[in-house]
Amino acid sequence: MGWAEEVRSYWFSLRPEQWWHDPSLDSEIRERFGELWAEKRQLPASSFLATSEDALAGVLLFDQFPRNMFRDHADQFSTDLLALQIARGAVDSGADEALAPQERGFLYMPFQHSEDLDDQQRSVLLFTALGDAEQLRYARLHHDVIERFGRFPHRNAILGRTPRPDEVAAGEVVPW
């Protein structure tokens, strides 16, 4: 089994509730995929665009896995740009259309995790087209935070950013 198939097989063998904020997976993902993440992160995004499956595996490796491997540490966001570049390439080429809806939802996730309003707008469009009301709800929540603040205030402490007055006045803004 190649690396991309191993990543996809692992992720989609999990129960859906494990995908979201399950700290029990942190050490397992770190031990199983940490070296692969460190090795593959050196490659350009184009290296992951040969097939839609490779693109999906790259996004999982660089967007989802770091959120487990580096929970509560800035490194969890360190490969977000690479994941976003892979997702953009896959969507721009139409490779996303070859994936099942659940897989496409994960391929689109880097747009939702971006602190760029254009990416957030694209996220809402992609999740609208996907037709999953729950995922669209989260895409809109992420979009609204970026539209309001230009960044995710809940990342400030982890990233060493000083909260701005509007963020302080709003309190902790994590609607999900």
Identify the notable features of this structure and list them briefly:
176 residues; Serine Threonine Protein Phosphatase 5, Tetratricopeptide repeat; 2 domains; 10 helices; mainly alpha
Describe this structure in words.
It comes from Allosphingosinicella deserti. This is DUF924 domain-containing protein. Pfam families: DUF924 (PF06041). The protein has helices at residues 3-13, 16-19, 26-40, 52-69, 80-93, 101-113, 117-130, 133-149, 156-159, 165-170. The protein has 176 residues and is mainly alpha-helical. It has two domains: 1-113, no CATH class; 115-175, Tetratricopeptide repeat domain (Serine Threonine Protein Phosphatase 5, Tetratricopeptide repeat). The chain is globular.
Helix fraction, binned, reads: 55-70%
Please report the distance between the alpha carbons of the first and last residues.
36 Å
Question: Compute the gyration radius: what is it?
Answer: 16 Å
What is the subunit organization of this protein? single chain
Shape by Cα distribution: globular
Give the uncertain stretches in residue-range form: none
Question: How many helices?
Answer: 10
Strands, count: 0
Quick gist of this model?
This protein has helices at 3-13, 16-19, 26-40, 52-69, 80-93, 101-113, 117-130, 133-149, 156-159, 165-170. It has 176 residues and is mostly helical. It is globular, with a radius of gyration of 16 Å.
